[in-house]
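As promised in the previous annual report, we have extended the structural survey to additional targets. Below is the entry for Phage protein.
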Amino acid sequence: MASKLKLQPNPTFKFKVDIPVPGCEAVPVEFEFRHRVAADAYKFYGEWLARDEFGGDGDTEMLYALIAGWDIEEDYSRDNLALLLANYPAAGQALVDGYLDGLLNRRRGN
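The corresponding structure token record, generated without further manual editing, is:
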């Protein structure tokens, strides 16, 4: 029997995001994202696009509010997220795109 749709979705969902690695192929990592209602998700995306500073603490804070966990050897924390963003400069946009892909159930690839 097919599962029934719930009007109140789970508070989090998991989605694999391809983290770009300079000089190598992207590495798929499973992230656990916090669910947001449509209006809040679009507001977040607008704020992401409108930010004045790229990288640094602002990006860490925005993404920390979005991500609940990850499948990386190191524990998920604000400091480790900042380290990920510092070492992999394209990771921030990949995470935002991955979040929206997962939330909106967008298909990737062919």
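The chain has four helices and three strands. The helical segments are 38-50, 56-64, 78-87, 91-103. These points will be discussed at the next consortium meeting with the crystallography subgroup.
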